[in-house]
Amino acid sequence: MTEVQSFSTSAEAAGAQGAILGGGTLLMRQVNEAPQTVPRLIRITDPALREIRPEGDGHLIGAGVAMAQVIAHPDLGALAPVARSIGGPALRNMASIGGNLFAPHPYGDFTVALLALEAQVLWSDGQREEIERFLSVRDTARGVVTGIWVPRIAPGALRYRKVSRTRPKGVSVMSIAAYLPNGGSAPRIAFGAMGPTPLRAKAAESALQGRGLTEESVTAAGAVCLQGLSPADDALASAWYRSEVAPVHLRRCLMGET
User: Fold this and answer.
1) What is the pLDDT of residues 180-237, one digit of tens each?
2) What is the CA radius of gyration of the chain?
3) What is the DSSP letter of 2?
4) Which of 3, 20, 194, 227 is spaced 20 to 30 Å from 48 by Cα?
5) What CA–CA distance (Å, rounded) separates 166 from 42?
């Protein structure tokens, strides 16, 4: 039987041993199918975890914020297509930002966009961590993730593409996010399902650096986009297939093609 322990704040929950309950879309399925693997659930009732508020030149999104809240928020329109690509309406009303950070492939597509944005992960001890480092470690022993800070996104600066065998809400074979601030002169590109966690395609970024989105620069980015990535075989696609189509879908993402 799974024990449920509730806390009113993240700080109180930080020292507890157990799985943190977010939206429950993945964790509760595990509890139902294999309860012996989740002996204790940690539930945090702090309403601040479900808030979105401006902070500096960006927004702070609580870890408990659901995808549907992101879609509805007037200042997060650039992230709405990313949130909308995750499941159907019922799932988007439950799936949380914090849960998505820990979701394994073929889930976790929202985190790909956060990586491209160089978001910051907020911990219950008040510290912040760059998301790229967070993904490389995912040290849950450190405490509780309380939120994500994202920069303010200019219209058209974030481009996102989810590759799925079943539309409109199938799981992803691959996902790509490209953040193109300042007219695309300093791009940041992230891939999902091309490694053990979402990864930056830094060679592709360098190929575009200072050149903008031209036929020549996009072709150059596609030619090197696999450097630093490590796609694997799974039930959805082979590593070979992902490697073959990655440059094609990167081009479509960068150029806004359907």
Assistant:
1) 998 777 899 999 999 999 999 999 999 999 888 999 999 999 999 999 999 999 999 9
2) 18
3) -
4) 3
5) 34
